[in-house]
Amino acid sequence: MTISKLPVAAGLSAVLALGACTDPATLSGQTDPNQKAKQGALIGGLIGAGAGAIANDSDRGLGALTGAAVGAAAGGLVGNQLDKQAAELRQQLANDGITITNTGDRLVVSVPNDITFDTDSAAVRPGLRSDLNKVAQNLLRYPNSTVQVIGHTDSDGDATYNQGLSVRRANAVGDILQAGGVSFDRVQTIGRGEEQPIASNLTAEGKARNRRVEIVVIPRNA
């Protein structure tokens, strides 16, 4: 039996059109404070459309549209939650060196190693513990997520040593989050060493950016 793909394509096009038409930034060139939530809805709609089409063999067009609607709703909820959680963190954290990035499907809280640890140390400085405790309290208010704590270094020194140091630093930050009440099964600690730079290791400024611990908050239904 030959099944027409046109209704499925129409369903996907409808979701794309909805995202474009409801984005004030597209219409006016201005930044939309709810952009991440809308991106989440759009991504969820596209995924839902594909899943709905596959699930509904009798009417793939209807399945795509139904799946798109359900997926968009779920994606929008995730995006709204992340917008709210990010705004609360920015208001609560005292250190301007900590950055919070909402990618649309997760939050990345980046803590520079230079303000968190002494050189060649995995002991968190007392001045940063307060902010990390605030991150823990924020995670308790938003329990429907998993948390990856990822340690990174620059490329100076031995790569094997850097890998071990990144693991120890990720564990140190993860321990503080767990001591603040975040359950053990939500937190995964990972060391990446010098494998994932975000800037050039050829400059002092780039190396400083690469030395970091990232707390990645991933909604469970993302």
UniProtKB/TrEMBL annotation:
Main location: membrane
UniProt keyword annotation of Signal present: yes
InterPro entries in the cross-refs: Bact_OuterMem_StrucFunc, Gly-zipper, OMP_bac, OmpA-like, OmpA-like_sf
Superkingdom of the source species: Bacteria
GO cellular component, as recorded: cell outer membrane
Gene3D superfamilies: OmpA-like domain
Entry keyword annotation includes Membrane: yes
Annotated PROSITE patterns: OMPA_2, PROKAR_LIPOPROTEIN
Domain OmpA-like: 104-221
Signal sequence region: 1-19
Alphabetic keyword roster: Cell outer membrane, Membrane, Signal
Protein name (database record): Outer membrane protein OmpA
Listed transmembrane segments: none
Cellular location(s): Cell outer membrane
